[in-house]
Design brief:
- About 45% of the residues lie in helices and about 15% in strands.
- The protein folds into 4 domains: about 140 residues, Rossmann fold, CATH 3.40.50; about 80 residues, Helicase, Ruva Protein, domain 3 (Orthogonal Bundle), CATH 1.10.8; about 170 residues, P-loop containing nucleotide triphosphate hydrolases (Rossmann fold, 3-Layer(aba) Sandwich), CATH 3.40.50.300; about 80 residues, Helicase, Ruva Protein, domain 3, CATH 1.10.8.
- Helix 6 packs parallel to helix 8, helix 14 packs parallel to helix 16 and helix 18 packs across helix 20.
- It is elongated.
- The longest helix has 17 residues.
- With about 550 residues, it is an alpha/beta fold.
- It binds adenosine-5'-triphosphate.
- Adenosine-5'-triphosphate binds next to helix 12, helix 18 and helix 21.
Length: about 550
């Protein structure tokens, strides 16, 4: 039921006191003012009053006498008024306690007494309390009916944007280059803001960039950070990495590219559901977090990181309450991406009774939401220790796909070297006559068999430090030297890698497509040359089913 219909029902049923929690006073007042005159909706039209501590009562925008500015006098006025009326009271929460204030007992008493008077009054009279706070004093909990006032719909926000475009269209100093799809993206990015906040965000984008285009999304997303910060358990991640900053992992990239416009209306009209999410698992340091971050810039959606540690920390509230708050925030600002990093961390205690079932309850809440969510919140969960993940999480329907990110293949290592060298060799001093060509990349990739992406990045940085300390430009020799001195993680953890590959072969799809998996890569022997473990041919033991997208 929509807000207007719900309020009309309460007015007609003569509910004496209604409580609406909102920051959007003006929007609510404007809707209620129209409702008060609608014979069709409420049968008996009513005089519409608003009240605040500074203005007292206002009837149809005209200020009332000064004496009405105290809350007790205001309640007296309501009691004695003889005609059908709706009284919207703005500042009463200030006298009702909550948010470290002390309640005024005489006002609470007066409200309770008034309740009986309103119910018996021959003329229908209703009182609506508007407050930014949810607090209702214990004594009044049976007298007040709480009504939800939702955030503006997509249509509301789009109308604000349209108006702003129309007003500025003829201004020669402002350039507006929005296609109708861009407009949709911009309006969707503002979901979760109040109308005023959305208007402010569009206006800010307009003045800072001298116009509106797809890049104005940044200003709108910036406005949203405020909401996210207040939850305490969600973090807004500025989406710096682009998908082109990720080397290899073409299978995931293709999957994501195909779903780029999946949350636009055109996809829904085509008959497509919005994607639920992905679980990325695999060898640490091979780009899982990087992929999670780059989806945001690819899809032009805000990225929220959910810190499982904070959910359970007890610093900001109860664990289940924290998760519910995080989910509600993500839904309010959807479409968005919710990144749950190291999801296994929060779920590892599920089987143990050590935390009196808190982990199980939190996990249950998460699973149910993932299964049933109707709002376009794309969940990207990353996990290193997959063995500890509960099987329920992996069941079909929770995630659209589970991808396994393995040690990079030769082709992927070449890509990763290319990305990190190109990113850093921007000054002529550092670059000198270093050539980032096929031959060099191939040589470096051959020497870094079984290295992870993070190690390749570190090799590039360490080699540059070598060159910098000797005040010269980078050479291939610098890189070769650092490589020779690096012991890759895969060497010390080959047993774990072998295990997670076995796991992934059954349950996950390889992030690397078949064509990039060719070539002979070996998993190093455990504990060096003394081990009885033979070298393993990665091309036959690489983890993840080869399903190409
Ligand atoms: P962890 O689980 O330990 O957090 P991860 O798989 O999430 O590991 P990232 O944090 O994405 O790994 O990788 C660490 C860093 O290594 C990245 O910031 C990036 O600079 C580099 N890196 C890793 N993999 C790649 C890749 N495929 N392409 C480019 N850079 C990479």
């Amino acid at each position: 039921m929509n807000f207007n219909q719900e309020m009309a029902n309460y007015f007609r049923a003569r509910f004496p006191f209604l409580h609406i929690t909102t920051w959007e006073e003006e929007r609510v007042i404007s809707e209620l003012r129209t409702l008060a005159q609608s014979e069709e909706m409420i049968k008996t039209p009513r005089t519409f009053f608003t009240w605040s501590v500074t203005e007292g009562f206002k009837r149809n925008e005209e200020s009332g006498p000064d004496a009405m500015k105290t809350p007790v006098k205001a309640l007296d006025f309501i009691e004695k008024y003889k005609e059908p009326a709706i009284f919207v009271l703005k500042d009463f929460h200030v006298f009702l306690g909550g948010e470290n204030r002390t309640a005024d007992p005489s006002i609470i008493r007066k409200i309770r007494d008034l309740s009986v008077v309103l119910e018996k009054s021959p003329a229908p009279k209703n009182v609506v309390f508007l407050s930014p706070s949810e607090h209702i004093p214990f004594d009044l909990q049976k007298d007040l009916t709480v009504v939800e006032y939702g955030l503006p719909t997509f249509e509301d926000i789009k109308e604000v944007l349209r108006k702003m475009i129309d007003v500025n269209r003829s201004n020669s100093r402002i350039t507006i280059t929005l296609t109708s799809e861009d407009e949709e993206r911009l309006a969707k990015a503002a979901m979760g803001l109040t109308l005023q906040e959305a208007e402010n965000a569009f206006a800010l984008a307009l003045v800072t960039r001298g116009g509106l285009d797809l890049n104005s999304l940044e200003s709108v997303l910036h406005e949203k950070q405020q909401i996210i910060k207040k939850t305490g358990v969600l973090e807004y991640i500025k989406s710096e990495p682009r998908i082109s900053d990720v080397g290899g992992l073409e299978n995931i990239k293709r999957w994501l590219k195909k779903r780029n416009r999946s949350w636009l209306d055109s996809a829904a009209e085509y008959g497509l559901p919005s994607p639920k999410g992905l679980l990325l698992t695999g060898v640490p340091g091979c780009g899982k977090s990087l992929i999670a971050k780059s989806i945001s810039s690819m899809w032009h959606l805000p990225l929220l990181k959910l810190d499982m540690g904070k959910i359970f920390s007890g610093i900001v509230g109860s664990s289940e309450g924290n998760l519910r708050k995080a989910i509600a925030t993500a839904e309010a600002i959807s479409p968005c991406i919710l990144w749950i990093d190291e999801i296994e961390k929060g779920l590892s205690g599920i089987d143990s009774s050590g935390d009196s079932g808190t982990s199980s309850r939190v996990f249950g809440t998460l699973l149910t939401w993932m299964q049933e969510k109707s709002k376009p919140v794309f969940v990207i969960a990353t996990a290193n220790n997959i063995q500890s993940l509960p099987p329920e999480l992996l069941r079909k329907g929770r995630f659209d796909e589970i991808f396994f990110v393995d040690l990079p293949t030769k082709k992927e290592r070449m890509d990763i070297f290319n990305i990190h060298l190109s990113k850093r060799l921007t000054s002529p001093k550092a670059r000198g006559d270093f050539q980032i060509d096929e031959e060099t990349l191939s040589l470096l990739a051959d020497r870094t068999e079984t290295f992870i992406g993070a190690e390749i990045e570190q090799i590039c940085i360490a080699a540059l430090f070598e060159a910098f300390s000797e005040e010269r430009s980078l050479t291939v020799n610098d890189l070769k030297k650092v490589i020779a001195n690096t012991v890759p993680l895969s060497k010390t953890q080959s047993e774990q890698i072998r295990k997670i590959r076995e796991w992934a072969n059954l349950r996950a799809v390889a992030a690397t497509p078949q064509e990039d998996r060719a070539g002979y890569d070996k998993l190093p022997k455990i504990n060096g040359a003394d081990s009885a473990e033979p070298d393993q041919d990665i091309s036959s033991t690489r983890g993840g089913r080869s399903l190409d997208f």
